[in-house]
Amino acid sequence: MAQMNMIQALNSAMNLMMARDPDVIIIGQDVGYFGGVFRATDGLQRQYGEHRVIDAPIAEGGIVGSAIGMGVNGLRPIVEIQFADYIYPGYDQLASELAKLRYRTAGDFFSPLTIRTPCGGGIRGGQTHSQSPEGIFTHVAGLKVVMPSNPYDAKGMLITAIEDDDPVIFFEPKRIYNGPFDGDPDKPAVPWSSHPKGEVPEEYYTIPLGRAEITREGSDLTVLCYGTMVHVCEAAAKAAEVDAEIVDLRSMVPLDVDTIRSSVEKTGRCVIAHEATRFSGFGAELAATVQEECFYSLEAPILRVTGWDTPYPHAFEWEYFPGQARLIAAFEKVLEAA
Amino acid sequence: MSRRPRLHIPHPPARPGEDPDFSYVEISPAGSVARPDPTARLRDIERSLAFEMIRVLDDNNVATGPWDPLLDPADLQIGLRHMLTTRLFDERMQRMQRQGRISFYMKSLGEEAVSVAQCMALEPSDMLFPSYRNQGLQITRGRNLVDLMCQCLSNSADMCKGRQMPIMYHWARGNIFSISGNLTTQFPQAVGWAMAAAIKGEDDIASAWIGEGASAEADFHHAMTFASVYKPPVILNIVNNQWAISTFQGFAGGENRPFAARGPGYGFPGVRVDGNDFLAVYAVTRWAAERARRGVGATLIEHVTYRADAHSTSDDPSRYRPKEEWKAWPLGDPVERLKNHMIAEGYWSEAEHEALIAELIEHVSECWEEALTYGTMTDGPQLDKNELFEDVFKDMPRHLIDQREQLRALEDD
Ligand SMILES: Cc1ncc(C[n+]2csc(CCOP(=O)(O)OP(=O)(O)O)c2C)c(N)n1
Questions:
Q1: Which of A140, B30, B95, B133 could disulfide-link B58, Cβ–Cβ 3.0 to 4.6 Å?
Q2: Whole-model pTM above 0.90?
């Protein structure tokens, strides 16, 4: 097995899929000659040519709209939106068109797009390079929405997403492109080579979408999380010496309700964590699901630890970020409840 | 695979390791384009304005032709001073980013004439909607460099209260709108601001700037359509600096016709100007402003220039373009050209120029020292953490009051 960071794992997934299927193409800003501003498509244009790794004009609506058309005409486009914060000009095409195409044509038309986009904060990017907008996509019927938390999952899930005939919004937590991050910005950066999930097979493999993974088994409480927060939650549980069961959802739509239910039924307590803002965030959907599925097992109110309901600031990034201190406070609170 | 793809893919003239080639840039001789009356019928003027290039300074740095704005030497000195201030401020801030004092920076090297000449050609009450590469507008409008530096530092005197990345300035009192990280959004907003001026019967005009890359966004077309329909008093500027991060202007549609030619496509003039010719930029801006103020309507201006440095401090242009490409840029350096013109005319000298640079370097340093007294992101006076929750709304709703309390409780622990 090879050591890969998340960028390398994503690159490997795209490379394999382009080799296997001539219909797989990539389109996005700066993805071609340059290899992407985060270098996820590095070398792919050289290998597969300019007709398969296509630099695009700066027009997210145009990129998504034209990719939908390519998909309808038999290609299997991977779209890169440079930052999730810049996905909004493409939102109409995603929410009104891509999401509903199969339904409104009774299955006669579909467009198998994968939309890759870096999300999340902790990089001093301010309000236009830090957002986590997954919740406004999970709310649209017809879009699959996923977010891996490590290189191994990133590769396997991206391959599955590319092969999927339904549209997948593939969020990439950019704070952990190069290594896991436990929420403490003062600690030296840790590379993926120090983490078991930085071991990534060179060859093809898939990870099904809609399957959560328990990254740490525990009995005191269940933590539902995804992306960067998986690592922050693991560190917080360790620091608080709490026997938490950490559930990395990996996929929001479809959601692995079975794994969530069996974990919460076991622990009786649940904390939900995401970087995105709280109000109407995906955590609200999770809390409602847990309440419906596990009401009689719950021993404490479900708590959410999230970004505050403000735009992502440039200063006070770590006051904004739902870090270990806030998680630990939530753990203590759900454990105290009788 | 037996596919024979036939999609057209634009190619820049040169990649790293190749010789720069700007033969695609069509350049008209200085003074060769007629200056029409601002009220002239579009069909009589559209072709020459959009397809030729308006230039005033010739190869010997002499001002020539009908577009010469005949500025006083004192105004030229002011223009030169503002361009140099912009350049030296940029240099200093880039260095501060390299030293880790600020998180990010974007220079406007080589494009200073656009912001400085245009701002001088407009009235202080005109509303400006800048992109992130228009720091010259702030400087020319008289903003204290300390204010700009404090914003970049996210310190206790930051006008944005730490809420925006460096360079995302705004200046309500100076009539300069907030810079957004999302490209092109300010273009239709400027049109709307101008529509409001017309609705209210006021004389102020609006001016907005985007890069040629950003002209691909739908918001560009929204702005153009509304400007065409309502003929509001607005100037819409495309700063064609040839590169949008790694993609050259062909990826925004610049291979086929000048960006200026999009104006006539929508029914109002587009003017293609040598963006490194201070006098020409000033002159076309006056012309467009006159159209706006006389109620004739909007003007699109394409400034042909070159982004001489990296896109930002996160970028490495040597990966996608020849290292020395700027040196081959046929329209030169706007600062050098104005300076040489002034020297040729006898109102400036090398010695005065050197003295001005020394004075401005000193000024920038003093401003930096002062800015630091308001703190950095890590040391010195800090913003109040409670500010994090202010200004989401005018009045703070219950859920934000609760969240502010939660943060306070956590900090007290
Ligand atoms: C909506 C949106 N999409 C993408 C980006 C990322 N981005 C920032 S600047 C830039 C290039 C802009 O190039 P151009 O408009 O030519 O202006 P220049 O930087 O050359 O001055 C890109 C793609 C963004 N800021 N906003």
A1: B30
A2: yes
